């Protein structure tokens, strides 16, 4: 039996194509980002203040690690996210 080509299978196939993954631990005063390659090797580990210019620089650094390919971001926070 052939698996369906539903949205979940498409997401799994797309995720397998990413060369790096980035995770961000979000805090009130600072954030910490780690980027890993497909082998699990750490490409970047950086703490930044809760400041827009610092965050934009971090995003540029992570995108440079991706070398023009897409990447998933995984934000983590102890607070619950809620719609306003």
From TrEMBL:
Keywords: Plasmid. Residues 22-64 form the Transposase IS110-like N-terminal domain. InterPro entries: Transp_IS110-like_N. Pfam families: DEDD_Tnp_IS110. It comes from the Bacteria. This is Transposase IS110-like N-terminal domain-containing protein. It comes from Streptomyces rimosus subsp. rimosus.
